[in-house]
Write a structure and sequence with these properties.
The complex is a heterodimer of chains A (119) and B (115). Chain A has no helices and eleven strands. By secondary structure, chain A is an all-beta fold. By secondary structure, chain B is mostly beta strands. In chain B, the strands form three sheets. In chain B, strands 2, 5, 6, 10, 11 and 12 form a six-stranded mixed β-sheet that branches. A four-stranded antiparallel β-sheet of chain B has the order 3-9-8-7, with no helix packed on it. A two-stranded antiparallel sheet of chain B has the order 1-4. Chain B is globular. Classes of the chains: A mainly beta (119), B mainly beta (115).
């Protein structure tokens, strides 16, 4: 297992176009997260899945954004009608669930991200 | 919502010296985790160290250690014997044990290591 993979690494798109990003988590990890990171800021939470179920969404995830994890493995994040404000690094992370102390779900393993530029 | 504040946008340290990065957070919860992540330029974020809030003992990982002051809601990272490879953006992060699964990140501190 080579860790969390994200594809593509870079994407340049024209305003108004749709884009889709893919994330392949660590195979035994059942939780998958999407974050957005803009220049000079820390990552901001977008959404998270446990297996195939999308359990939490941030208000940052407008109706132009949709995420799926159809078989509880890889995930896709689609942005429709992109805007210049969508330009950011989109980070995916995965973890093995737990919850209580000692459960093992302490931190994430991050992917290298997809850098989106909307022109 | 929880907030995490890193008041030092940039720090620098001489190679082999020690540097401390500051982080404060705001929460009304008693059970949570705190983390420091490292993000080298154009590379993925890597977990440096973590701390469970119930533990009074400060976490240590080789050259990295934390000073966790729960009452003061402070969580600083000390890097000893700094190496050129330590140069990166460092993010402090908070995660609740009981409510939600998201991390709250600070804005980061860019660390430069001077040879």
């Amino acid at each position: 297992d080579t860790g969390v993979s994200q594809d593509p690494r870079h994407k340049i798109t024209k305003r108004g176009q749709n884009v889709t990003f893919r994330c392949d988590p660590i195979s035994e990890h059942n939780r998958l997260y999407w974050y957005r990171q803009t220049l000079g800021q820390g990552p901001e939470f977008l959404t998270y899945f446990q297996n195939e179920a999308q359990l939490e969404k941030s208000r940052l995830l407008s109706n132009r954004f949709s995420a799926e994890r159809p078989k509880g493995s890889f995930s896709t994040l689609e942005i429709q009608r992109t805007e210049q404000g969508d330009s950011a690094m989109y980070l995916c992370a995965s973890s093995l669930s737990g919850g209580g102390w000692g459960s093992g779900d302490y931190g994430y393993t991050f992917g290298s991200g997809t850098r989106l530029t909307v022109v | 919502a929880q907030t995490v504040t890193q008041s030092q946008p940039e720090m620098s340290v001489q190679e082999a010296e020690t540097v401390t990065l500051s982080c404060t957070y705001d929460t009304s919860e008693s059970d949570y985790y705190l983390f420091w992540y490292k993000q080298p330029p154009s590379r993925q974020m890597i977990l440096v160290i973590r701390q469970e809030a119930y533990k009074q003992q400060n976490a240590t990982e080789n050259r990295f250690s934390v000073n966790f002051q729960k009452a003061a809601k402070s969580f600083s990272l000390k890097i000893s014997d700094s190496q050129l490879g330590d140069a990166a953006m460092y993010f402090c992060a908070y995660r609740s044990l009981n409510t939600g699964n998201q991390f709250y990140f600070g804005t980061g501190t860019s660390l430069t290591v001077i040879p």
